[in-house]
Amino acid sequence: MAEKESRQSRRDFLQVFTRGAPLGLALFGAAAVFVRNVLAYLFPERKVKKYHRYLVAREGEIPLGQAKRLIIGGKPVFVVHLEDGYKVFSGICTHLGCIVRWEKEKERFYCPCHKGVFNKRGEVVSGPPPEPLVPFRVERESGLVFMYVEEKIKGPWS
Amino acid sequence: MKLKDWILERFPIDFQKFVEINERIFIKEPIPLHMKKWFYCMGATPLILFGFQLVTGILLTFYFVPSPEMAYESVRHITEDVRFGFWIRGIHRWGSNLMIIALLLHMTRVFFTRAYQKPREINWMIGVALFMLTLTFAFTGYSLTYNQLSYWATTVGTNMIREVPLVGEWLFLFLRGGEDVSANTLTRFYTIHIGFLPPILILLIALHILILRIQGVSEPEGYPKGHYSFYPHHFYKIIIATLFLLTLLTTLSVIYPPGLGEPANPAVTPPHIKPEWYFFPVYRFLKLVPLRVGIFSVALFLVGMTFWPFIEPWIAREKRRRIVLGYVVGSLVLISTLALTFWETVEM
Description:
Chain A has helices spanning 2-19, 21-42, and strands at residues 51-58, 67-72, 75-82, 85-90, 101-103, 108-111, 116-119, 124-126, 135-141, 144-150. Chain A is of the alpha+beta class.
């Protein structure tokens, strides 16, 4: 008897729910939009990286196999003229962050702190540096050499 | 039904009984006939709004930083940069205002239908506590935005607390975390707003509803006797109210997005400072009388309101006189509150 009653009430429950379908649909829709918006709120928008283009050299200015030192945003970079074009490296040693210097005669970078040596392509030749010098993207356009530096705006939210 | 069996093996309860209890308590909760009228069934409105406040409040903590340097900036970031940030903050801001309006309406209705009478005195008192906690919520939340108005509202508000007899000085130092409104004040208000008040309010709401359920909804005179079950009629009403409120809050947030104001400047008090509208009656009243008298009167009023269900039969023994007393006192409070609010609104 008790079972029968409970079954009856379950059918009632469902029937009432079909009658309340528009309301249920509205509630479901609202909940779906709400959740979608909340997810958008919680996951910050991915920022597309922005780059600044700097003119770093004129072609012919640097002899083949030689480098030019520049300061970009307070940090030294080297523009190197190679057989296959121009390259730009960060002047910060990948070992412990000292500033490397360009040795003209030996055509190499030398870090005075721990005797790290990089060749003109930025690759480690000897010493403790674990990685090659950090390269920047370079572009040549009508006799000019440009480098691209990622724009890093310092703010509490980036 | 495999899942049901799996769960029942691990939680061996009498399922049939569980269904029955659930039906008796929720689905077939007897609702008196007069509650088919919208006017009488809006007690759930503050609860629904509180639900929105909880959700949006938790979401706001993902970005808000409670420090003097970062509070204003992080509120700006939420409002202007974060996707849907203005919406989340808008719901929270408008939700707090609507929650206070809903409580005022609920209390007015309860008072004038005399639903606080014996044996429901305790629930009236819990209701008053809930109202005061909500105002504390609003005050602490408002000060977190750290703009000029909220900063000076915090300064003035905490200074007023200092005038409270006996505990004032102690409470003042406790809230400010020192002599001045500082980083300590902000973190304290934040902790109170998100840590202390929510569990207390949830507990009291649960108690409020529990007592209501045990006693049953009070029935005003002059309505046909009888009951209908909670599900589906009343259940649908609550869903309709929820959807309506979400739509209303969203609309308000889009039309009147939450503002930022000027960043707080402890060196300059703005020429026109006013609290939020719900403090207008108290604010106006305090301008009329000496501060000590004002604080004392407000405290006396709150005590009177809290214990009104006991005070009323104590003053008027006879039932007819009691009803007249209730209406007269209620009307006087309502009229003077509205008048003070109006006065403060029109005067710059």
